[in-house]
Amino acid sequence: EPEVTQTPSHQVTQMGQEVILRCVPISNHLYFYWYRQILGQKVEFLVSFYNNEISEKSEIFDDQFSVERPDGSNFTLKIRSTKLEDSAMYFCASSANSGSSTDTQYFGPGTRLTVL
Amino acid sequence: KQEVTQIPAALSVPEGENLVLNCSFTDSAIYNLQWFRQDPGKGLTSLLLIQSSQREQTSGRLNASLDKSSGRSTLYIAASQPGDSATYLCAALGGSYIPTFGRGTSLIVHP
């Protein structure tokens, strides 16, 4: 069964450094998402992406964040200057459609980001 | 702003029991309500998705119901097994198709 993959599984970085989290969505999906989950907290929506553009973003997704689909398979989340509070689990998801109440998002296993 | 609450926060039961997990949401203007399972250190697996026009969905031993007017959804797990041990999350899909998640119910089913 096709699945969403994410690399790396765990990333440790120093405060102020840039990190890029990578995701390979399911191949025929058109909509891509990033979420984060701070330890012990709720899963929070960050951004959705379609047709090489951001569709929606939350208030968390400020200027230090950016997303990109650099080629036909990868979907990346860049954090420009990491802060301690960026430490969290970051999940990528993809769906075949959006704007549909029947659509299901498929989640990757996550990247645990630790900012020291 | 949508708020999603899940009760109970944690549940420990012996194998074989039937369980009810509760999810409530403050804004009834949702497109759908989705239940996920999350195993420790892992991603989310979609279990059931109920569209706003539907009342319930079933998959195997799982049944999810939705009452939009009262802002509630329940996940019913029949004949629980140790393999059901996980955290169960509900998410309400509202305006702009942005999902709002609850904190989850942590379930342990012991043999």
Report on the architecture of this protein:
The complex is a heterodimer of chains A (116) and B (111). Helices cover 0% and strands 49% of the residues of chain A. With 116 residues, chain A is an all-beta fold. In chain A, strands 2, 4, 5, 6, 9, 10 and 11 form a seven-stranded mixed sheet that branches. Chain A contains no helices and eleven strands. Chain A has strands at residues 5-7, 10-13, 19-24, 31-37, 43-50, 53-57, 65-68, 75-79, 88-95, 106-107, 111-115. Chain B is an all-beta fold. Chain B has no helices and eleven strands. The mean pLDDT of chain B is 93. Chain B starts with a strand and ends with a strand. In chain B, the strands form two sheets. In chain B, strands 2, 4, 5, 9, 10 and 11 form a six-stranded mixed sheet that branches. Chain B has a five-stranded antiparallel sheet with strand order 1-3-8-7-6, with no helix packed on it. Chain A binds chain B through residues 4, 41-45, 48, 55-56, 58, 91, 93, 98-99, 101-102, 104-110, 112, and chain B through 31-32, 34, 36, 41-46, 49, 51-53, 89, 91, 93, 96-104.
What's the arrangement of secondary structure elements?
The complex is a heterodimer of chains A (116) and B (111).
Chain A lengths: L4 E3 L2 E4 L5 E6 L6 E7 L5 E8 L2 E5 L7 E4 L6 E5 L8 E8 L10 E2 L3 E5 L1
Parallel strand pairs in A: 2-11
Antiparallel strand pairs in A: 1-3, 3-8, 4-5, 4-9, 5-6, 7-8, 9-10, 9-11
Chain B lengths: L3 E4 L2 E5 L4 E7 L6 E7 L5 E8 L4 E4 L2 E6 L4 E6 L8 E8 L5 E3 L3 E6 L1
Proportion of residues in extended strands of chain A = over 45%
Distance between the termini of chain A: 37 Å
Helix fraction bin of chain B = under 10%
Low-confidence stretches of chain B: none
* SSE succession of chain A: EEEEEEEEEEE
Could you estimate the helical fraction of the residues of chain A in percent? under 10%
Task: Specify the number of helices of chain A.
Answer: 0
Query: Quaternary arrangement of the chains shown?
Result: heterodimer
